[in-house]
Structures are given as structure tokens and as C-alpha cells.
Specification:
Layout lengths: L13 H8 L5 E4 L7 E2 L14 E4 L4 E10 L13 E8 L4 E5 L14 E10 L2 E8 L1
Antiparallel strand pairs: 1-2, 1-3, 4-5, 4-7, 5-6, 7-8
Length: about 140
């Protein structure tokens, strides 16, 4: 749907969104030798050590669901046709927490918390793909 809201792309997060359009998962990683942690969401400095030297790196794309909600009534009308869908909080294997969606409905909600997932990419608008997650 063309009336879906686009992400707010700027100089800080452009590499993330451009990578999504190439079906590539990139996150920032702190280059400080004593830190080296992955960072999500894109920003200008490391939230863990305060270092300002971040690089774009490819994480595993794996994680586990720590919370979820089945959305029956989206807040934006352009998502009404997609409901119901699962909005999830994923703890990535590299540490950061990321909010996204499951790419398809699970057979059951039993055991969904803690279930392993991997990143996949889905069309959002004609110009932008988004990272979703698939159960593994």
C-alpha cells in the first residue's frame, strides 16, 4: 500500500535502511576496544560506553522472542488489511533489543516466548523493505 508511513531516514540511519532494501541486515557496532557491542537503533554514539566511533557490521540476524502482541486493530488504517499480525520484541544474539513483526502467523502462541527467530525482509512500500522475523 502506498499510503503506509515511511521510516524517517536521515544521515545517521540511512545505511540501515539502504541495507534492508538489499536484503542485508546491518547494525552499528562500537569500535572502542573495551566495548565492541552492537547497537540498535542507529545513533551517533555508543549507549554503553559513550564512544563516538561506530561502524556498520553484519550481525547473525538470529535472536529470540522476549515478548509479543497479536495486533487485531492497527493504529494506522493502511495496516487494517494485514491484521491480525504479531508484533514482537526480539533480543538479538548480539544483545540489542529490536521490535518488529513475525512474517507469518505461528501455528500456536504456546512457546512463542523464547522461540528462536531469524531476520527476513518484507516489502513495506515500493521504495522500502523492512526487517521482519521468521520462526526457526
Amino acid at each position: 500500500m502506498s499510503d503506509k508511513p515511511d521510516p524517517r531516514i536521515n544521515a545517521i540511519n540511512r545505511a540501515f535502511w539502504d541495507a534492508c532494501n538489499r536484503d542485508e541486515f546491518l547494525l552499528q557496532r562500537c569500535k572502542a576496544p573495551a566495548c565492541g557491542r552492537f547497537v540498535y537503533f542507529p545513533r551517533v554514539c555508543c549507549p554503553y560506553c559513550g564512544g563516538g566511533d561506530l561502524e556498520w557490521a553484519q550481525p547473525s540476524g538470529l535472536g529470540r522472542i522476549v515478548s509479543f502482541s497479536r495486533i487485531h486493530r492497527p493504529q494506522h488504517p493502511s495496516f487494517f488489511d494485514e491484521a491480525p499480525y504479531y508484533f514482537i520484541a526480539v533480543e538479538l544474539a548480539e544483545g540489542p533489543l529490536m521490535y518488529s513483526r513475525l512474517d507469518r502467523d505461528p501455528e500456536s502462541e504456546d512457546g512463542l516466548i523464547g522461540h528462536a527467530v531469524k531476520v527476513v525482509f518484507a516489502d513495506h512500500t515500493p521504495k522500502q523493505r523492512l526487517p521482519f522475523f521468521r520462526l526457526v
